[in-house]
Please model this.
Amino acid sequence: MIYLTRRERFSAAHRLYNPALSDEENFELYGPCSNPNWHGHNYVLWVTIKGKVNPGTGYVVDLKKLSRLIREEVIDKIDHKNLNVEVDFLKEKYISTENLAMGIWEQLDPHVKALGVELHSVRIQETENNFAEYFGK
Amino acid sequence: MIYLTRRERFSAAHRLYNPALSDEENFELYGPCSNPNWHGHNYVLWVTIKGKVNPGTGYVVDLKKLSRLIREEVIDKIDHKNLNVEVDFLKEKYISTENLAMGIWEQLDPHVKALGVELHSVRIQETENNFAEYFGK
Amino acid sequence: MIYLTRRERFSAAHRLYNPALSDEENFELYGPCSNPNWHGHNYVLWVTIKGKVNPGTGYVVDLKKLSRLIREEVIDKIDHKNLNVEVDFLKEKYISTENLAMGIWEQLDPHVKALGVELHSVRIQETENNFAEYFGK
Amino acid sequence: MIYLTRRERFSAAHRLYNPALSDEENFELYGPCSNPNWHGHNYVLWVTIKGKVNPGTGYVVDLKKLSRLIREEVIDKIDHKNLNVEVDFLKEKYISTENLAMGIWEQLDPHVKALGVELHSVRIQETENNFAEYFGK
Amino acid sequence: MIYLTRRERFSAAHRLYNPALSDEENFELYGPCSNPNWHGHNYVLWVTIKGKVNPGTGYVVDLKKLSRLIREEVIDKIDHKNLNVEVDFLKEKYISTENLAMGIWEQLDPHVKALGVELHSVRIQETENNFAEYFGK
Amino acid sequence: MIYLTRRERFSAAHRLYNPALSDEENFELYGPCSNPNWHGHNYVLWVTIKGKVNPGTGYVVDLKKLSRLIREEVIDKIDHKNLNVEVDFLKEKYISTENLAMGIWEQLDPHVKALGVELHSVRIQETENNFAEYFGK
Model:
């Protein structure tokens, strides 16, 4: 079993807030991350899949195919977007790094399976000091 | 003459657009950077000052003072903000990396002079592939 | 279950040596790391916790709280310190990266539990080529 | 149990191709990675071992010994080499990052055991976006 | 005057050798870099241009256009190539980092001028420890 | 004219203090950097030389020779050392990053000249946020 990781990047705006709370209450809970005028990040995404090496190619999976898959199913939908208002698979969710990792997992999992390998983890860096990782359960 | 550089970081939302143009025209000009719903970045800022070493301290300038200055005059005003709508010193400007570097220079220059040293350059990284640097002229 | 990681940094002096041995014997065992006049590093620390996402906030834990905890219980006690002579929780220990990771784990574990989540790992980078990681057992 | 990681680097040429196929067929399968005139990379290698801390030294293993081992058994054989034609332990293999990680594992495993510790993983970065990791099974 | 920098990457094989010398003499001169079977690198390229900010766009130049230019005139010709045998603009040259920087400058300069700005520098990283930079004279 | 840069690293202990002042006064002036028990850093050093490309080799200077020179004249004297008490060329100096850059310049300059090229700059990173650079005047 080999683990392969592909790194992709996207830049997006977001805001952390609970719609049931006032701006003041959201500020108390989330601090400047709740700014109603939005802020944003350069997110870094690492997608790790696992599988056996195909003896006919030396590959577990063609990383170019994995990269294209991540771009079509994830990056194209979130890059240069507002994560709170423009992304179908994040609708009705708090846009925390945690929920972003879980949402991206759900986007990718069926498509990675269709490549004949298994999704192992989705890891997101929000700033150089903050990371979330999800293993599907 | 010694050159000292302090790195600081901020995360912000922005949009590139010309208010005289329609969203379609702005998209033609700026691409996804013109998204009316905003996007954002983790910006990295390097401020370089130059001066002579003070023989009584070994310092050109105390980097903690320089850091505090950059935080008070720049970071506190732009971190977790929307650069187009919430930042006085960027008002009426296109929020390109170029203008951001020039705007930050103008913010810092008089305060750096007040420390007894000279501002040499303001450099900004918008993504890991894009940088702008301004030397004051 | 989501894994969240917070990165913090500290700069400290240390020395590797066995007090029962002479300086020559320590040099044989530890090389220049045993320099009796000390040397030092910019250490990088990654603390990973795991837990379930709170549906009311989108957070496993507020990373600002985790960061404050790491600063109060660890960083403030070791940053700009001599790890051999000034740090209570490292007393009587060889100051290897291994023991540093285990010592920091013991410092953090009860406090992380008090946040309602679980400490997963403590990882330390001593130089860009050397790392130690501890998972609590 | 502590996990120790040593990072090493090497620069090498390689080509992905199936000798039973024509250059055109290889290009279809592997793209520009199949260039018959070769291309190359700065590979980064992380070797992770695990073991208990020796109470007499504070070390799981002396990282300088681990580094020397990796240099002698791996780096000296592949650095500034053509991985397809000059490396005994990669002969008859497709030079994918996957096979490189597995080949390096096999080179290191008996020697790491001889140090009294266990090899945990071999991780290779081929470009800043592509990684393979092998855990020995 | 603002300085804008675009980073691009390419992976290539090369060899340092003087065709008038034997392999042994080349090894004496260039060490393992002269390996007749080639080796390779992940090169990083920073292209810096300078110009005035266009008040109608906020841009000195559209970095997407600069990136496309670098890709068409440079990256497409050298990425996943053998720099000694497949690159017209490096023919008859020793493939040192120095000559690579100068060759890329000559490729880019007329096209950058055609964008209405000035090429300021071409900087290449061959390994994380080695860099060459050329300013056109 | 080509500019070549070699990166080297060293780890050392130091302390900022004025011997004419008490520990309390030094703390007021330098903060925790004045800790009488020392602290330390992983310093990164970039040495940039400039010269013309030798048409017979493609090199301005052999970077392996430059690296050896930096190791012999600088790194071997400061790596794993206490910069305040063990380094001849820093004796009687405040061990600020500024003075370190200037001291290293003086160490290297005559030897770089002897290689037939010119020393352009010495740049030191003390932490990921702090840098000093010296150009010889």
Q: What stands out?
A: The two ends of chain C are 20 Å apart (CA to CA). Chain C has a mean pLDDT of 97. The first strand of chain C starts at residue 2 and ends at 14. The CA atoms of residues 79 and 122 of chain C lie 17 Å apart.
